[in-house]
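Backbone-to-sequence.
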C-alpha cells in the first residue's frame, strides 16, 4: 500500500482509505475519491504538483497535499 502522491505515471490502484481534515475529506468524497474506487495516474506536472488521475471514468486533477491523504493498494 502507498499514498497516491507516491505513485508513478501509469500506475493503477484501488483506494483503501482517505485520511484528512473533515473539510478536505468531504471535498475528496464529493469528487468521487472514496474507498473501493480504482485510480489510474495519468500525468504529473514537472514539479510533481498537481497530479492528473482517472477515477470513475473521468479525469481529475489533485494537489499533492490532497494526494497524500489517499492510501491505495497497488494493482498489478
Amino acid at each position: 500500500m502507498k499514498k497516491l502522491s507516491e505513485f508513478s505515471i501509469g500506475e493503477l490502484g484501488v483506494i483503501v482509505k482517505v485520511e484528512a481534515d473533515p473539510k478536505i475529506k468531504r471535498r475528496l468524497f464529493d469528487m468521487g475519491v472514496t474507498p473501493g474506487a480504482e485510480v489510474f495516474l495519468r500525468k504529473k506536472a514537472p514539479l510533481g504538483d498537481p497530479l492528473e488521475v482517472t477515477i470513475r471514468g473521468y479525469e481529475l486533477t489533485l494537489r499533492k497535499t490532497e494526494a497524500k491523504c489517499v492510501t491505495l493498494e497497488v494493482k498489478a
